[in-house]
Amino acid sequence: DPGRPRGLAPLPSRPPQEHLMNLLREEGGNISALARRLQICTRTVYRWLRAYGLELQDFRSEIDQEAGVA
Predict the structure, then answer these.
(1) 54/48 Cα distance (integer angstroms)
(2) Per-residue pLDDT for the chain (70 aa), expressed as one digit of tens each?
């Protein structure tokens, strides 16, 4: 990619939306835990959420509802 500085690893490909949502559920909506699991930076996870139009607050609310917290 000519726009990326030399020496940086290529950006990871974005997982399918359903797969990303499943991973987020498995990590309890924890972005940092998901980033560590996938060995990527948290900014990449947020970029993916934005690309799919997913709102993290909505997603965390869904998790809370399933757990009976909300």
Answers:
(1) 8
(2) 555 556 666 667 888 899 999 998 888 888 999 999 999 999 999 999 999 998 877 667 555 656 665 4
CA 50 to chain CA mean position, Å: 9
- Residue 17, both tokens: 């939306």
For the full predicted model, state whether its pTM sits above 0.70.
Answer: no
Query: Which residues, 6+ apart, have CB-to-CB distance to 64 below 8 Å?
Result: 70
Q: Determine the residue type at 58.
A: D
What is the spatial distance between Cα 44 and Cα 42, in angstroms, rounded to a whole number? 5
Q: How far is CA 50 from CA 6, 47, 53, in A?
A: 26, 5, 5
Q: How many Cβ atoms sit within 10 Å of the Cβ of residue 34?
A: 20
